[in-house]
């Protein structure tokens, strides 16, 4: 897809709900697409895909987090609110929705791709964009195709 296709990117994201992107390894070009999303009325949330753990718990359920244990204190568990639900509650009134922008998505499993492709159907105000690899130019396709492969 050409760089001028930013409006087409927004239309494809609204239609598919979740997109898998390939971007040049030097970066920078995807910022133009993020700017198109913001001008279309979406709020973006950037996350690094590796290390998220159980996606369904981290994104949509209250989940426990245990800090590193040094051996000199009791093991503690802190409970955090669901990330997606928290950000949806904080959206401005005129926002179309929340776009989860995940970088380094090539390290995710097929099961995680399938869940992220399903997430926009569970919560219609959430859209997902995952950077799944590198190429000479920016390109995208529906995440459901990547999850099925």
UniProtKB/TrEMBL annotation:
Pfam families xrefs: NdhN
Keywords: Membrane, NAD, NADP, Plastoquinone, Quinone, Thylakoid, Translocase, Transport
Catalytic activity: a plastoquinone + NADH + (n+1) H(+)(in) = a plastoquinol + NAD(+) + n H(+)(out); a plastoquinone + NADPH + (n+1) H(+)(in) = a plastoquinol + NADP(+) + n H(+)(out)
Topology of the protein relative to the lipid bilayer: Peripheral membrane protein
Identification of the protein by name: NAD(P)H-quinone oxidoreductase subunit N
Family the UniProt entry places it in: Belongs to the complex I NdhN subunit family.
Protein localization: Cellular thylakoid membrane
Keyword Transport: yes
PANTHER family associated with the record: NAD(P)H-QUINONE OXIDOREDUCTASE SUBUNIT N, CHLOROPLASTIC
Organism: Candidatus Synechococcus calcipolaris G9
Documented EC number(s): 7.1.1.-
Role, per record: NDH-1 shuttles electrons from an unknown electron donor, via FMN and iron-sulfur (Fe-S) centers, to quinones in the respiratory and/or the photosynthetic chain. The immediate electron acceptor for the enzyme in this species is believed to be plastoquinone. Couples the redox reaction to proton translocation, and thus conserves the redox energy in a proton gradient. Cyanobacterial NDH-1 also plays a role in inorganic carbon-concentration.
EC class of the enzyme, as a word: translocase
Gene responsible for this protein: ndhN
Assembly notes: NDH-1 can be composed of about 15 different subunits; different subcomplexes with different compositions have been identified which probably have different functions.
């Amino acid at each position: 897809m050409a760089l001028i296709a930013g409006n087409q990117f927004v239309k494809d994201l609204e239609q598919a709900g979740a997109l898998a992107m390939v971007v040049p390894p030097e970066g920078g070009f995807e910022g133009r697409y993020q700017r198109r999303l913001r001008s279309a009325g979406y709020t973006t949330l950037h996350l690094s895909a590796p290390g998220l753990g159980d996606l369904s718990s981290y994104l949509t359920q209250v989940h426990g987090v245990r800090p590193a244990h040094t051996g000199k204190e009791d093991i503690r568990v802190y409970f955090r609110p669901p990330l997606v639900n928290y950000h949806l509650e904080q959206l401005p009134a005129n926002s179309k929705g929340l776009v989860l922008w995940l970088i380094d998505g090539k390290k995710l499993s097929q099961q995680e791709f399938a869940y992220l492709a399903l997430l926009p159907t569970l919560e219609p105000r959430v859209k997902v964009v995952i950077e799944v690899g590198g190429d000479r130019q920016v390109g995208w396709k529906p995440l459901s195709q990547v999850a099925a492969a």
